[in-house]
């Protein structure tokens, strides 16, 4: 399970998400790409009466936006959780591209310093089996974390981690 992140005022980045694979039912068509794939109603992650105890007494003053990612055969999902909702996880965007029969979508995300947008690089998991696709085949998009609006970019990028700390420890792609 990927670790969630909290975005105060600095840029943050996650590593390549290793999702749990899910298979669709035999004969079912592949899911089409969606943005803002939100369930109609969700129970709060932390029920109202328990929030002070679970989240700490100062949670109401926090401007943090928690976020995490996951992937499955429908796409690479960017989830967010806000204070006003008791940190209930909601899907901000689901990223995928038509024409790929992927068992899972993977990716990396970097949240801008303002905390308002996320830049994602995503691809079918099978791209990791090809050096060229891993190095330059990832699809790119900017996601508005408040509205869920997805702006797909006309550029492909590396799925490799490029965080400076990671580059010192391991060999980059």
From TrEMBL:
Polar residues bias (residue ranges): 9-20
Spans annotated as Disordered: 1-57
Domain of life: Bacteria
Protein name: Secreted protein
Lineage: Bacteria, Bacillati, Actinomycetota, Actinomycetes, Kitasatosporales
């Amino acid at each position: 399970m990927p670790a969630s992140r909290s975005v105060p005022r600095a840029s943050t980045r996650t590593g390549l998400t290793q999702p749990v694979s899910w298979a669709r039912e035999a004969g079912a068509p592949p899911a089409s790409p969606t943005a803002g794939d939100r369930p109609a109603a969700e129970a709060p992650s932390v029920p109202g009466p328990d929030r002070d105890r679970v989240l700490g007494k100062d949670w109401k003053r926090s401007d943090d936006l928690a976020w995490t990612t996951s992937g499955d055969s429908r796409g690479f999902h960017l989830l967010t959780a806000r204070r006003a909702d008791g940190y209930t996880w909601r899907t901000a965007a689901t990223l995928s591209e038509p024409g790929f029969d992927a068992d899972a979508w993977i990716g990396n995300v970097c949240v801008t310093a303002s905390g308002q947008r996320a830049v994602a690089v995503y691809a079918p998991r099978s791209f990791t089996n090809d050096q060229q696709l891993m190095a330059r085949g990832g699809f790119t998009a900017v996601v508005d974390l408040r509205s869920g609006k997805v702006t797909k970019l006309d550029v492909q990028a590396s799925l490799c981690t490029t965080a400076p700390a990671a580059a010192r420890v391991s060999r980059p792609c």
